[in-house]
Amino acid sequence: MDIQVMGHVGRRYVDRGEQVVHDPSPAVITNLLAELCAVDEDPEWWNDGVIGKVGAVDGVGFVVAPVTGYVALSWTGTAERSLNPKPFDDAPLLPRDGADDPLVYYPRSAYLPAEEAKKALAEHIVTGAQPTCVQWQPWGWEVRELPVWLTPEMPEYPAFHLISD
């Protein structure tokens, strides 16, 4: 089994095929997960990527909050987000992309402790399936204002949650 990582990891961008791990041992997986879930003390930098088997349609997206190290996961097959039933009081607001207008943020309820996220990523590496060791919630974003193009009759409407605090 070959595992591929894509996205922003450790202040560099990894494109398709640039970081492939061939038939990883448990030690290699442990080191890979440590790299993917590494914390950066600079609030401008965070790991944000996808891991999956080479050639697979689905994978697990991950976003690592700088400083706190909380990790939000996303299953690419359905875009579901991980769910922390007891969200952190200091869960971050990390934008998906600074070019979005308005900015959309990963749901604060999606952030998990790094160890839980690593278990889920390891489960995906072994099974290739959506991890079952974490809870999932429907896809969605937090926003300070709704996009102008979004109307109540659009199916995306309930996925945008206004930040009220």
Main sheet specs: 8 strands, antiparallel
Radius of gyration: 16 Å
- Report the helical percentage: 10-25%
Order of helices and strands: EEHEEEEEEHEEE
State the separation between the terminal residues, measured CA to CA. 45 Å
**Low-confidence sequence ranges:** none
Report mean pLDDT, rounded to a whole number.
92
Shape: globular
Number of separate helices: 2
Question: Which structural class is indicated by helix and strand composition?
Answer: alpha+beta
Based on DSSP secondary structure assignment, what is the total number of beta strands? 11
What percent strand? Answer: 25-35%
Give structural notes:
Helix 1 crosses helix 2. The protein contains two helices and eleven strands, in the order ββαββββββαβββ. Strands 1, 2, 3, 4, 5, 6, 8 and 9 form an eight-stranded antiparallel sheet that branches. The radius of gyration is 16 Å and the shape is globular. The termini are far apart. Strand 1 and strand 2 form a beta hairpin. It is α+β, with helices and mostly antiparallel strands and 165 residues long. The chain is 15% helix and 32% strand.
Task: Output the keywords.
2 helices; 3-stranded mixed sheet; single chain; 165 residues; alpha+beta
